[in-house]
Design a protein that fits this description.
Helix content: 25-40%
Number of strands: 7
Largest sheet: 7 strands, mixed
Shape: elongated
Number of domains: 2
Structural class: alpha/beta
Oligomer: single chain
CATH class of the largest domain: Alpha Beta
CATH topology of the largest domain: Rossmann fold
Strand order of the largest sheet: 3-4-2-5-1-6-7
Strand content: 5-15%
Number of helices: 17
Radius of gyration: 43 Å
CATH superfamily of the largest domain: P-loop containing nucleotide triphosphate hydrolases
Length: about 400
C-alpha cells in the first residue's frame, strides 16, 4: 500500500507477517551471546528507510550480508524517527549505550538505563578528598586577676608583657580596668581616647581599631568601661564578648595579657572566659590572701559553665618586704596551701615600680639594669619554661 491515513491505520485489521529482519536478529543474537534477552515490555520500533546500522552492530555482524531494508511504506507510516530494532537488540533492550563485544582481557562496559542519561549516577559521583585542616597557632591568653585592689596586677601585666617582648614574642596587652592604669602606664591619656574597649564589648567594634602601638601593642581603656557592665546586661552572650573580639587578632600574637578590674564582675568574667591561664598576683599580706578563696570559687563556675580549659597558671607573691616576719609568714602560708602553684619568682618592693608609670614606660625600659626589671625577667623565664614543658 501507499500512504495510509492515521485513521485507516487503527480501523483496518493488521495482518501479522514475519518481518524479513528476524533472520538477521537471530544471527546477531548468536554472534553476541553475552547480550541479555530484549525486554518484551518495550516493543521494537520500525527501521527507517535508508538509515545505516549503528557501528557496533556492523562490527558484531561482520561476515553476514547487509540487512534487507523494510518496505518504504512501513517506514513512512511512522510519525517520528525512533530507535531501530537493531538498536534495541544491541543495547540489551534498554535503549541506552550499545554493547560492544569485549576484547580478550577487557571487561565488558557497564550497561546503563535511560534514567542514567537524565541525571548523574550517585555511584559515579566524584568524592573529593578532604584535606586535614592544619591547626593555626593562636595566642596564649593570660588573665591577671584578683578581686582585691593594690596587689600589682597592672604592674605585673605590663612588665611581664614587655619581658615577653624582649624574648622575641609578639604581645598584646588589654586594659579591661575602667581606671585605665595600664593605658596611662604607656603614656596614653584614657580621657582623650576616642575609641576604647567599651566600643568593642558593647558595640562589637573590631578590636584592631583600638589597638595602639607603644612598647607593646595595647588595647586601650577609657572611663566609659565603668558603664560597660550595665550596657551589656541585656546583650546575649555578654560573657563571651571579649572572647569573640579576640578571634580577629588571635593569630597575630603569641601572648595576650589582660589586666582586670579589682572585682569579680562581668568584665573579669569576660577576661576569665577568654583566657587559657590565670596568674594571680597576691600581696604578701593576710587580707590579700583571703581573696584567693573567692577567686577560686568564681573560676570553678567559669570552668563549669563557660570555659572548661581555663586554669590557674600560678600565684605570684608581690610587694614582698623580706625584712618583715609577716611577709615571710604570708609566703609560707601560700606555699603550704597551694604548693607548686606558687611561682618561685618573687616581686619585691622597689621605688622604680612607682616611678616608671610617670614616664609612661615599663620598669624594664625605665630602669633596664635595675633589680625591679630583673624580677619580671625571671618571672617571664619561669612562665616560658613552664609553657615549653607542657
Amino acid at each position: 500500500m501507499g500512504f495510509l491515513s492515521r485513521k485507516s491505520k487503527f480501523r483496518e485489521p493488521v495482518v501479522e507477517e514475519q518481518h524479513p529482519i528476524v533472520e538477521e536478529l537471530e544471527e546477531i543474537e548468536a554472534a553476541v551471546p553475552e547480550a541479555p534477552e530484549p525486554d518484551s515490555s518495550q516493543p521494537a520500533g520500525p527501521v527507517g528507510a535508508g538509515d545505516p546500522p549503528p557501528p557496533a552492530v556492523a562490527k558484531a555482524s561482520s561476515g553476514v550480508g547487509p540487512p534487507t531494508p523494510p518496505p518504504a511504506g512501513e517506514a513512512e507510516m511512522t510519525d517520528a524517527p525512533g530507535p531501530t530494532a537493531l538498536d534495541v537488540q544491541a543495547s540489551g533492550g534498554s535503549g541506552g549505550a550499545p554493547v560492544v563485544e569485549a576484547e580478550e582481557g577487557e571487561s565488558e562496559p557497564e550497561r546503563f538505563m535511560p534514567r542514567d542519561l537524565l541525571a548523574p549516577s550517585r555511584h559515579e559521583a566524584v568524592v573529593e578528598k578532604v584535606e586535614p585542616e592544619v591547626p593555626v597557632k593562636s595566642a596564649e591568653v593570660i588573665a591577671f586577676a584578683n578581686q582585691k585592689g593594690g596587689v600589682a596586677k597592672t604592674t605585673t601585666t605590663l612588665n611581664l608583657a614587655v619581658a615577653f617582648a624582649e624574648s622575641g614574642h609578639r604581645v598584646l596587652c588589654i586594659d579591661l580596668d575602667p581606671q585605665g592604669n595600664l593605658t596611662m602606664s604607656q603614656g596614653i591619656d584614657p580621657d582623650r581616647v576616642e575609641k576604647s574597649l567599651y566600643d568593642v564589648l558593647v558595640n562589637d567594634m573590631p578590636i584592631s581599631e583600638i589597638i595602639q602601638k607603644r612598647e607593646i601593642d595595647i588595647a586601650v581603656a577609657s572611663i566609659d568601661l565603668a558603664g560597660a557592665e550595665i550596657a551589656m546586661s541585656t546583650k546575649i552572650g555578654r560573657e563571651r564578648s571579649l572572647e569573640k573580639a579576640l578571634k580577629e587578632v588571635a593569630g597575630d600574637y603569641d601572648f595576650v595579657c589582660i589586666d582586670t578590674p579589682p572585682s569579680l564582675g562581668l568584665l573579669t568574667i569576660n577576661a576569665l572566659t577568654a583566657a587559657n591561664k590565670v596568674i594571680v598576683p597576691v600581696q604578701c599580706e593576710y587580707l590579700s590572701m583571703r581573696g584567693l578563696v573567692q577567686l577560686q570559687n568564681t573560676l570553678k563556675m567559669i570552668q563549669e559553665n563557660l570555659n572548661p580549659d581555663v586554669r590557674i597558671e600560678g600565684i605570684l607573691p608581690t610587694m614582698l618586704d623580706s625584712r618583715t616576719v609577716h611577709a615571710k609568714e604570708a609566703v609560707e602560708i601560700l606555699e603550704e596551701n597551694f604548693g607548686d602553684l606558687v611561682f618561685k619568682s618573687r616581686i619585691r618592693k622597689a621605688i622604680k615600680f612607682a616611678e616608671a608609670p610617670v614616664k609612661g614606660a615599663s620598669v624594664l625600659k625605665y630602669d633596664p639594669q635595675g633589680n625591679a626589671a630583673g624580677y619580671y625577667r625571671d618571672l617571664a623565664k619561669e612562665v616560658l619554661e613552664h609553657e615549653s614543658a607542657q
